[in-house]
Every structure is written in C-alpha cells, then in structure tokens.
Amino acid sequence: MPGRTVIAIGRGASPIPTAVKAARGTLKSSRVNPGEPQGEAIPIPPPPDDFPPPLKKTWIDLAAQVDPMRITSAAHIEGFALMVTSIAICRSASATLFDPVKNPTFSMTYVSKTGAGNERIQKWPELEVLAQHQKIAAYWLSRFGLTPADSQRVSTLGDSSTNDPLNEFGT
C-alpha cells in the first residue's frame, strides 16, 4: 500500500540449530550453512558506563535471569541492550501512569484545556509509549527465551542435572 510502511518482526518458527538436527538424525548436508555462527556462550558483561541508572538496574535484573541459561554470545549483547532499553522504557511509562501525584485517580485519561478554553479528554501519552515498547520488549524476551512459551525452545549449556538423552550428542 502506498504511504504505509510494514515492518515484519518475526518470520515464523525459529530455525532448528544444526547440532540439534545432527543429534536427531535429520541433518541434510545440502542444507548445512557453512557460515552458521558458532559463538561461545559468555556471561553478560556489566552494563555500559553511559547507561543511566534505570537502564543499569534493568540490565542487572535481566542479566541475572539470562546468565544462568548460558545462551548469550558476544553477538547477542546488542540485542540484549535493546531488550533492556525497551523494558526500562516500559517500567518508566508505567511508573508515570501510576504516579499518585501526577495521576491520583490512576485514570488512563486526563482533562486538558484547548486554546478556546474548552475541556478535552485525552489519553496519557505514556500509554502509546508503553504499548509500543511492550511489543518490542515481548519480541526480545521471546528471542532470549524469557517468556513461558519460549523457555522450552532454549537449551542451556552444561546443565548436567537433566536426564536429556540428547545431552550425549552435545546439544
């Protein structure tokens, strides 16, 4: 459609890692990507120095959840930073909406005066910001396996406490 930009966030089911296909016996040599990234799992580094305190707090909170899974490589840190930013923006917008000083009734709308002196009911701008960044945060949370539906897709490295029969194949 002219004048409209459509951005597709997902492209369907995530591809199955080559190591899992090999373990299952479904790997076809014609479909192997020789350029597939083979990054080592690394701990998430401390938050960047230029992050403001709310982003640093969110970074530390999320790193505590993601690090034990040992799923991040150096290439994932930028995506992690985007997730942190969106979640911090959601937290900030929510805090403003539920601020008892700014919004004592916890209403989703407020009354403003127009140039002619009439009253106009408007929704809080934070609602738009919150809605937009909730979608972005949900995308990144799912990519890191931090939603209930996505947590089963993520396999952790070095977890010997599970009795997964595929563990012997290094998946």
Spatially, the strands of the biggest sheet line up as 1-2
Classify the helix fraction into a percent range.
Answer: 25-40%
Query: Which residue ranges are poorly predicted, with pLDDT under 50 across at least 5 consecutive positions?
Result: none
Instruction: Give, in order, the helices and strands.
Output: HHHEEH
Largest sheet: 2 strands, antiparallel
* Tally of separate helices: 4
Distance between the termini: 44 Å
Compute the average pLDDT.
78
| DSSP strand content | 5-15%
Number of strands: 2
**Radius of gyration over all CA atoms, rounded:** 22 Å
Quaternary organization: single chain
* Overall 3D form: elongated
Structural class by sheet pairing and helices: mainly alpha
Task: Sum this structure up briefly.
By secondary structure, the chain is mostly helical.
What's the structural blueprint in terms of helices and strands?
Blueprint: H1 18-24, H2 53-66, H3 77-97, E1 109-113, E2 119-123, H4 125-143
Antiparallel strand pairs: 1-2
Helix pairs in contact: 2-3, 3-4
Key attributes of the depicted protein:
171 residues, single chain, 4 helices, two-stranded antiparallel ribbon, 36% helix, mainly alpha
